[in-house]
Amino acid sequence: MYANILAMGATTTGTTAAADGTTSFLPTLIIFGAIILIFYFLIIRPQKKKEKEEKEMLAAMKKGDKIVTIGGIRGTVAVVKETTVIIKVDDNTRIEFSKNAISAILDKKPEKKAAETVEKPVEKVEKPAAEEPQAEESKL
Fold this sequence. Notes:
Elements: H1 2-60, E1 66-69, E2 74-80, E3 84-88, E4 94-98, E5 102-107, H2 114-117
Antiparallel strand pairs: 1-2, 1-5, 2-3, 3-4
């Protein structure tokens, strides 16, 4: 008799565990997906954005830009090559660095555009003739 009760309890517990196992899989899957989304938006996406900005910065580097290297050396770009940059540190001192060693561009050399060099016509504003000049009382 005790064997029958234990057997019934085992089968009841076994079927309940099987049913609970399938229902507990869905919340686990949802939590796992949420963790992946959190990692993507907090870690992966900002890192990719930063890498893209660095690539654009290095591609836009040109002669005359003031830069700082990852070692803290500051200088002015003298020559930009395909994979390296020659930096003028002092009057007679030039150092060649890999482009990847450039940390930041501090001061970009302004680009001269053809549109800015053309002078704009100045418009003259005429004063109305009816106004009388005011006397200068404050001048002594």
